[in-house]
Amino acid sequence: MTSVALTIAGSDSGGGAGIQADLKTFQELGVFGTSALTAITAQNTLGVHAVQPVDPKTVAAQIRAVLDDLPVTAIKTGMLFSDEIIRIVAEELKSFPSIPLVIDPVMIAKGGASLLQNEAVLALCKQLLPIATLITPNIPEAEVLTGQSIHSEEDMEVAAKALLSMGPSAILLKGGHREDVPFAEDLFMTADGEHFLMRSKRIATPNTHGTGCTFAAAITAELAKGHSLEDAVVTAKHFIHAAIEDGIELGNGHGPTNHAA
Ligand code: PLP
């Protein structure tokens, strides 16, 4: 049977991140991808030039249209942009509590553009984190969500526990932004206390655009196929390592990770 996943995210016209990265990753991992668009970005490998959010009612209508008909077995959220969109997404998803939900708390693009308004952070914490199966913050996102700075493995553990207290069933805290270590070390922890570290060699490349979206989409695809959360994060870690290693030299800025790696 065909497995189906839904991504609720923003469009990257440059094709490296957002909805485009999610759908390509789903396809690559053998999952049929569906989507609900939250915002349109005019973007290329150099950065974000413009952002136009979608009317929240239209975001809700897309989610409902997909979930009322297609047999979706995992959902991911990416760029949500505003408090209004977050509230309506949470409202729609509350009716489907049995579908695993991966929340990638996207905040700022590599070039510095804001993909989440400051006043929307509270709604993300209050409305979406409590219904998440897994949240996948990177270090800067975890610092914003917890208000704590993270410089070591111990700091990562403290932050992961603080984020779990906001209600998600599990967290994957991505350590790729830490500069004190020569590897990318991610911490997986569940609300039940299970935890493990995943470590990979740091790859020196400018072609990392869309890394976070691709990682979370790969986890979502594996969940859609019925794999356990633990197996999904391990498979996705291998996938994202290969995608960065195989990053594509495209455009004049940060080329994309290779979704077909
Ligand atoms: N654009 C969209 C629509 C995104 O969802 C994201 C990340 O989630 C980005 C851009 C940022 O990508 P990056 O920071 O990897 O360049």
Automatic annotation (TrEMBL):
Any Pfam family the entry gives: Phos_pyr_kin
Alphabetical list of InterPro entries matching this protein: HMP/HMP-P_kinase_dom, PM/HMP-P_kinase-1, Ribokinase-like
Key words of the record: Kinase, Thiamine biosynthesis, Transferase
Any one GO MF annotation of this record: hydroxymethylpyrimidine kinase activity
Catalytic activity from the UniProt record: 4-amino-5-hydroxymethyl-2-methylpyrimidine + ATP = 4-amino-2-methyl-5-(phosphooxymethyl)pyrimidine + ADP + H(+); 4-amino-2-methyl-5-(phosphooxymethyl)pyrimidine + ATP = 4-amino-2-methyl-5-(diphosphooxymethyl)pyrimidine + ADP
Pathway: Cofactor biosynthesis; thiamine diphosphate biosynthesis; 4-amino-2-methyl-5-diphosphomethylpyrimidine from 5-amino-1-(5-phospho-D-ribosyl)imidazole: step 3/3; Cofactor biosynthesis; thiamine diphosphate biosynthesis; 4-amino-2-methyl-5-diphosphomethylpyrimidine from 5-amino-1-(5-phospho-D-ribosyl)imidazole: step 2/3
Annotated Pyridoxamine kinase/Phosphomethylpyrimidine kinase domain residues: 12-258
Coiled-coil segments: none
Similarity remark: Belongs to the ThiD family.
Protein name, as recorded: Hydroxymethylpyrimidine/phosphomethylpyrimidine kinase
